[in-house]
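Thread: sanity check for a docking pose with flavin mononucleotide

Original post by kr_44:
Hi all, I'm comparing my docking run against an independent structure prediction. Below are the sequence and the ligand SMILES. Could someone generate the full complex and paste the structure tokens? I mainly care about where the ligand ends up relative to the chain.
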Amino acid sequence: MKDTDALDTILRYHAQTKHHPDRYAPSLGYMDWENQPVPFRWFNNTEKIDLFHPDIRQTPGYDALFGSIPDPAPLDAVFISALFYHSLALAAWKQASGSRPWSLRINPSSGALYPTESYLISPGIQGLYDTGGLFHYDPMHHRLERRCRIPDPAWADLSSHVNSSFLILGLSSIFWRESWKYGARALRYCHLDVGHAIGCISFAARALGWKLSMLTHLSHEDMNHILGTGAMAHTTGDDHHKRSQMKLEHPEQEVPDALLLLTPDQRDAESGLPKPTHGPDEGLCRALKARFSGLTFEGAPNRLSREHHEWPLIDDAALALARTESTPTFPDKDPANAPIGWPGHFDRPDPSGVIFRKRRSVSTMDPEGILALDTFYTMLARTLPEQFMFDALVLPAQVSLVLFVHRVESLLPGLYILIRNRPGSEHLIKTLKTTYTLEPEPNCPEALEFYRLCARSQAEQPADVPDQWRDSILIDTSNPETIQDLASRISCHQDIAGLGAFSLGMIARFEPLLQSMGPLAYPMLFWECGLIGQVLYLEATAAGFAGTGIGCFFDDMMHRLLGIHTISFQSLYHFTVGRPIIDSRLKSLAPYHHLGR
Ligand SMILES: Cc1cc2nc3c(=O)[nH]c(=O)nc-3n(C[C@H](O)[C@H](O)[C@H](O)COP(=O)(O)O)c2cc1C
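Reply from moderator J.T.:
Ran it for you. Here is the predicted complex with flavin mononucleotide included:
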């Protein structure tokens, strides 16, 4: 598909999968319980390697992760076990009276459908497996399934491109898992889930003194060859009819998302700057492609559903997103030169492993729960792009946060903005200024560019605002009830968006970025949003509050509120934080009780 066609396809997908108050994005409209996908993938006829279950209390303090880097742990069986246990393993089972228990994971997922699969490329590890290879991670049993062997000479070749020990993690998505319930909007949710998963792995790696970076010099076909995931049906035709005929080869096919390089986070003792562990990733990617070509994959994937519903919008978008080039150009981002993130105010004793596992979404928030101002600012500071977890992304930050503040100590309820991408936010600020004045918040930490949005009166609005927009933007942003009502209305009438301490929309630079970078930027924007969501989840948990991702929101209602009337900026994910009301009717079971643990 030509790049311009691919871009059109993505812009069409985005427009057609918006929720509107009178028209939700296309979906089945009912739950097809007969074909509910199995939430776990496994590969039959593969060697299974059980991992250890580490003590979650033997992990560095959660707050300490934002300060100094823990000494890098050696790459061994305990390391591999801990990496998965703290990032993608089961976290708990929940059970309602009279129903079967369902499992939850360290990584959150829209509708608990878990479309993200993960793979490990590793050398031989004493006590686990003698020969290196590619392994699929099975969270149900916290074990690896060997998909192929990498002979020692091949591993030596890969190693020659990295001057430290290393691992590679691969992520892929099964769109069907999400589209079964959410229909056409599912592809967005899958990519948000990938962002959450990247966040989980970054945090787990940090707790082990390691860091993550994304390998960029790989096409989708390369990633398919390396991960043993399915190929996509391609056609060279570019007329609309042909394009609408294209689809994934099988509805349960895994589509590769990204390969992540994990290396020890070594710092120069004097400057504190990261020591380079590898040069440009080109050499490593070339070696991966060469070494994985012709390898035989073991095992066959389980079937997830008996029958499937087709979502051509998703198939078209997935094909448009398939990266055909292996050398995409990304804007410069040099983590070594980035300022060190402000670690925030806290030094709470909770071990990070406990916070990772305790994190839960909630369905009800306590309207009496007021968040302390210090905690609030620390949460915001930790979503800034200079924090360690954003090193895993290749795109520089594109997303700012528009907050509906309801119950934060000493802050007037109202609309606020946190600018996360200082260079590049000028156009957003200019757009907002047609509707609002931006008032700096007194006493806000210097590290934060945080403003209160005060609605201009109609007379104050610039003359070039078209008449038909004026009504929609006349909102009394100083009235707490209006703000709460608006927040929940925009979030598909979900009360949790209005009952918490605050909720927010993630506003991404959109069409100009896609025009300059191509459709490839589309999933990356969702990854950034998912990663921000993961930080907020953990921050809320550490503060004794709870967060919940909100994928269901009325896109253009949010845009109208902000005076955004083009697709230069789009809201891609919403999130809420508040004091949880725990549903005591639900019973919690230990994550691996079914293994006798
Ligand atoms: C991308 C994404 C979108 C979500 N959207 C919603 C939502 O609109 N409403 C809601 O109540 N929960 C939402 N959630 C929360 C999930 O339902 C929750 O993560 C899942 O049930 C697993 O539970 P856990 O987060 O406690 O592990 C979302 C989560 C994610 C990751």
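Residues 104, 108-112, 189, 192-193, 196, 360-361, 363, 494, 548-552 surround flavin mononucleotide (CB under 6 Å). Hope that helps with the comparison, let us know if your pose agrees.
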